[in-house]
Amino acid sequence: MRGTRKTRTVTGLTLAAGLVTATSIGIAGGASADPGTTEGTANVQQPPKGARATVQVSPNPTTHRGQEVTITGNCGGGTGLKSVLGGFPEHPALENIRILETGPDRFVAKANLAATIGNGVGPVFVDCGGEAGVTLLVTHV
Question: Model's pTM, two decimal places?
Answer without folding.
Answer: 0.70
